[in-house]
């Protein structure tokens, strides 16, 4: 069975990010076609990229990098949950991606984003370019949450609706399919390298 990881891509105090990350993770747990895990970068606590060797060489000197490598290597597909900061995505997510290379290769990724009127769409556009560079397959399916603060209840909880759930299941369907196909493709590529 394939593994789909939800990556919470903000570490700001009082962050909204954990709400959509937890929401889509809880929905994903109801699926039977894949396993899922929530990866919170606030808990991973990677320092600013401190490896002396470029990640494409796959030679890591620090334990935190080796642990991060093992985590991402085990995943078959990803959902990046990102804010939009100044027309781009969060620096902590960029740092987490930049630590590795081969562990991301040939794996599908989708996005949940939030921000002001554009709903984080500009952050996702930047993420698509980064994903392509680490040989990920970025899916069209995504969820955008524009002006998210307008949809919080009195307790500060975002009010997700049926359209959000339908969009999440669209992401899951596509990720599940492509994660399985690309897992087989990675096995085929590994055989060719032998």
UniProtKB/TrEMBL annotation:
Keyword Ribosomal protein: no
Top-level division of the source organism's lineage: Bacteria
Keyword Ribosomal protein: no
EC number: 1.-.-.-
Keyword annotations: Oxidoreductase
Pfam families: FMN_red (PF03358)
NADPH-dependent FMN reductase-like domain sequence ranges: 2-149
Class of this enzyme: oxidoreductase
Name under which the protein is recorded: NAD(P)H-dependent oxidoreductase
Natural source organism: Hyalangium rubrum
């Amino acid at each position: 069975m394939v593994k789909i990881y939800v990556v919470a891509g903000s570490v700001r105090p009082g962050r909204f990010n954990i709400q959509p990350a937890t929401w889509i993770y809880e929905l994903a747990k109801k699926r039977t076609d894949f396993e899922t895990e929530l990866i919170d970068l606030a808990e991973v606590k990677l320092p600013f990229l401190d490896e002396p060797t470029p990640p494409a060489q796959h030679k890591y000197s620090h334990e935190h990098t080796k642990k991060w490598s093992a985590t991402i290597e085990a995943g078959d597909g990803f959902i990046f949950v990102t804010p939009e900061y100044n027309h781009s995505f969060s620096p902590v997510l960029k740092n987490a991606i930049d630590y590795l290379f081969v562990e991301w290769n040939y794996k599908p990724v989708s996005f949940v984003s939030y921000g002001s009127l554009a709903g984080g769409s500009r952050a996702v556009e930047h993420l698509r370019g980064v994903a392509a560079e680490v040989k990920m397959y970025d899916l069209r399916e995504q969820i955008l949450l524009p002006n998210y603060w307008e949809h919080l209840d009195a307790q500060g909880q975002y009010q997700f609706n049926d359209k959000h759930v339908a969009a999440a299941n669209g992401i899951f369907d596509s990720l599940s399919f492509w994660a399985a196909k690309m897992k087989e493709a990675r096995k085929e590529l590994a055989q060719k390298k032998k």
